[in-house]
Amino acid sequence: MNIFSQKHRLLHSIKKKNEFSIHSPYMFDLYNRLIKKHKRNPIRLIHLFQEEFGEKNIILISSSYDEFQAIQTVLIEKSIIIIDKPYQCKDSYNEFLKIISDPRRIVIIDLFKIVIIFQNSKLSPQKYRF
Questions:
Q1: pLDDT exceeds 90 at position 33
Q2: Taking a C-beta distance cutoff of 8 angstroms, is the pair 68, 96 a contact?
Q3: Residue boundaries of the structural domains of the chain
Q4: How many CB atoms lie within 10 A of CB 66?
């Protein structure tokens, strides 16, 4: 792990929250059912999301704003975007910042190793860091 990544891991651990910071009943339930137990194992968590929401509704991308924009044409309301390794290096982090500042994203769940983005307009805009 490089120095950039280590620095952001430390910052992430200082700023992260627990389930008591979640105000949405839907997100609270999702956190307790799936995320809480598997947040340290991203591969298992992605698999559980695929089982829960359907494999075709989970879209894995790198931390690239161009890739994020390219998939917008195929997204539906139920689509969930998972960004892999957003804190890997300075370039990927800068691209990640562009993604999370995009108005199309509604809910962001930042688990450091992966970031889960919901673009479902029925959810209220939130950013969670666990």
A1: yes
A2: no
A3: 3-129
A4: 10
